[in-house]
UniProtKB/TrEMBL annotation:
This is Uncharacterized protein. InterPro entries: Cytosolic_carboxypeptidase (IPR050821). Residues 130-142 have a biased composition (Acidic residues). Residues 126-149 are annotated as: Disordered. Its cofactor is Zn(2+). It comes from the Eukaryota.
């Protein structure tokens, strides 16, 4: 299936939004209730309240390092369990399955990422094989790997260059205004000096001295 026009894919490509959430809605077609029903204002208000509460919990977790480490560790273990014992490196098996002492410890997010990196290829292949489970799922390998970090650095460099250019223009403009101000000041001084000596020049009589 083509997912190029789905909301998550478009938002990722155009705005590089990583965390995108889809609200699935059914218009009088739900199989949960016996008869067709429509959403009303109260339903949408409850949706909004639930979304806000979820976002609040999400932000609280982001600000708590210990909870983040615990969540990443649980996610890492869950991923390894889905891969199966035969696809997980032997050194990481004791972390998931109790019974043996592990020589590797995972206590932080960086440890989780390092452990997942060791199985990156296997995880990617498994995700690609199940990419058609959801039309709006951007995790299935159909998204191209965008050079996010490079693009971000390029934008930052461009912004920095623009700031320097603006600063240079302002500096040049300030110098030009300073020169104009000094020129006007010098002309004013000359005019004032001339006005001061002009009466004296009018009093000077030219004497014709004959031999």
């Amino acid at each position: 299936r083509c997912k190029e026009s789905t909301g998550r894919v478009v938002m990722w490509k155009e705005m590089l939004i990583k965390n995108s959430f889809t609200l699935e809605a059914s218009f009088a077609g739900s199989s949960i209730v016996n008869k067709p029903c429509h959403f009303n204002i109260q339903d949408y208000e409850k949706f909004g309240q639930s979304i806000c509460e979820s976002l609040r919990q999400y932000l609280d977790i982001l600000s708590d390092t210990k909870r983040m480490d615990s969540i990443y560790l649980d996610i890492t273990k869950c991923v390894f369990r889905k891969l199966g014992k035969d696809k997980v490196p032997p050194a990481l098996l004791p972390l998931i399955y109790a019974g043996n002492d592990s020589t590797t410890s995972i206590i932080s997010i960086s440890d989780c990422l390092q452990a997942l990196t060791q199985c990156h290829k296997t995880i990617y292949e498994q995700d690609a094989s199940t990419s058609e489970d959801s039309d709006s799922d951007p995790e299935g390998g159909e998204l191209p790997e965008l050079p996010y970090q490079k693009e971000l650095e390029a934008k930052e460099a461009e912004a920095e260059l623009r700031k320097k250019q603006i600063k240079k223009k302002r500096s040049e403009k300030a110098i030009e205004e300073r020169i104009q101000k000094l020129t006007r000041k010098r002309e004013l001084h000359i005019l004032n000096d001339f006005n001061e000596i002009k009466p004296k020049l009018n009093k000077i009589k030219i004497i014709d001295i004959q031999p």
